[in-house]
Amino acid sequence: MSTTTVTKSPAETGGPGRAPARRAPVAEGRIGLRGNLRHIGALARRNALQIKQDPESMFDAVLMPIIFILLFVYVFGGAIAGKGNNEVYVNYVTPGLMAMMGMNIAMAVGVGINDDFKKGVMDRFRTMPIARSSVLIAKIVVEVGRMLIATAILLGMGFLLGMEIHTSVLHLFAAIGLSMVFGASLMWIFILLGLTLKTAQAVQGMAMIVLMPLQFGSSIFAPPTSMPDWLKAFTDYNPLSNLADAARNLINGGPVAHSVWMTLGWALAITAVTAPLAVTKFRKKT
């Protein structure tokens, strides 16, 4: 039996008198923009398919705007705008409720994140070679879609009840876009709560503590002119008031520059503070 000897070429051994060349280690944890977007798209599709398999998860986005606008227009509209002036109140409260929709949808994000960790879903994601932020951003992308559906239903009900656009359709789209931007920034707060608190019930309880003063201490439901001075001062700086005033003036006409810039400033500040904290907490959560 003959024996064949295999000899390595100088290119494989690094040349005469030199040690064999080693392959450069592959960089770990570095994912380019294209890869990151691909991961976000795949995870967003996975979250959307979950909604398709569980249509009941859309009940809040579908029913909440209908219940709220009917409740406030027919229960409080006469008392606030005067008897027989429900159509006037519809034009006032509907843009304000756009801000309220964002907060309520954002609360559901925190509860969902907490529940996903309990089920072990997030642990599987953290073992994959994907950017940690892509998991959270994909969640926000899908929830913004749910927010768009809720806003569309809210506006549809508003038009049925007599709401009119006194500016233009472009101004209406600007109001919707502003609501989406601010709502997405709020989601980072509730994602951070969902990652920090131990149970979904605790997330809901803490969310209500945050939601109630912001919603009812704002200009969403009534003009703040009749409020006491201390509450009016809080209302003036309340980000929900800024968003409600911006959406209202974009649809009904009026000065928008201050309220729009204040809303965008709040959205940027909230995202800049809470998004890095949420991603860091997601990496380290046990």
Mean pLDDT across residues: 82
Radius of gyration: 26 Å
Distance from N terminus to C terminus (CA atoms, Å) equals 60 Å
What general form does the structure show? elongated
Count of runs of 4 or more consecutive helical residues? 11
Biggest β-sheet, characterized? none
- Name the helix and strand elements from N-terminus to C-terminus, one letter apiece: HHHHHHHHHHH
Number of strands: 0
The percentage helix is over 70%
Report the β-strand fraction as a percent range.
under 5%
Which spans of ≥5 residues are poorly predicted at pLDDT below 50? 1-28
| Derived structural class | mainly alpha
What does this 3D model show about the protein?
By secondary structure, the chain is an all-alpha fold. It contains eleven helices and no strands. Helix 3 runs antiparallel to helix 4, helix 4 packs antiparallel against helix 6 and helix 10 packs across helix 11. The longest helix has 34 residues. The relative contact order is 0.12. The N terminus is likely disordered.
